[in-house]
Amino acid sequence: MRQMAKSETATRWIRRWLILIALMVYAIILVGGMTRLTDSGLSITEWDPISGALPPLGADAWAQEFAKYRQTAEFQQQNYNMTLSEFQYIYWWEWGHRLFGRLIGLVAVGGLVWFWMKGWLNRSLASRFVVLILLGGLQGAIGWWMVSSGIGETDRLDVAPYRLATHFSLALVIIGYTVWLWLDLGERGRMQLEGWRGRLPWILLALIFTQMVTGALVAGLDAGRTYTDWPLMMGQVVPPNYLEPDLGVRSLFEGRAATQFNHRYLAYAIWFVSLAAVAVSWGRTGWREMSTLATLVTVQAAWGIFTLIHAAPLEMAILHQALGVVVFITALRLAWLTLPSAAQRSVSG
What we know:
The protein is mainly alpha-helical. It has two domains: 1-187, no CATH class; 190-343, no CATH class. The protein is built from twelve helices and no strands. Helix 1 (8-37) runs antiparallel to helix 11 (314-338), helix 7 (195-221) packs antiparallel against helix 9 and helix 9 packs antiparallel against helix 10. The radius of gyration is 22 Å and the shape is flat.
């Protein structure tokens, strides 16, 4: 059933607000990617939601922040030659990432309050927007949980890969939920696909979401810069160290070879399923939407290979992430379009 605000004017402005939030979340995903790629994530060693909104002011404040960073294992074992100006470079990336998160929160809360004061929200919409804001707050907490894994531990120079993957996964959930709300408030009708054709968009959405999570693990482990031969890995189909002796089953989440292998072959599976979806839908309802998704999946797979064989330089890696989010949103939209409406469900029931 289409979700409605209390007037067409209200619906129009709420949808604009949702688009703004989605664009801001998309931007912060990319800023977060740059923060990771520049190894900036551990430059701020404390979580101060209020006072942390201000950057260091003056030489003494900068010296204090640099002194805190020098206590981390990342500095002591990896960046021990870092100068203050180099520290400031990574600090600004992390500070900007956190500040942008605060701005998203202000836009979300401010919009909800404004719409409520205008009397534009019914109870159903208001509750869904509250869920969106709560997800944003949870994301901030998980962000600190992620950063804290790389601070104060002598055996870790980066954040824990599974925490990075959790943080990134929730970002996808937030942008996906925002887009879903926007679609629910729109005029577009849904498509009725029978049999397996109706299930394929949901299968693709699940596979693409999983693939994005595996990509976060690869990124967190720098696995994309470890094995750069293709189509083989270390000259073999399955790398000999797929399961590392000291990790065992944990290699699936913490091993460079296993995470990159899984990421590669899941990409092949997604590509195959997307082409199969086009083939079974050709000339029928939904084939254009299926073709759009398959085209994006193909471009993303090709760019991923190109990025891999060039050892994942910063610019290529961030574009790979940016396109991945576009693929995810396209799959989400396709799934929404094929979800049976309330009327269709009542007829089929």
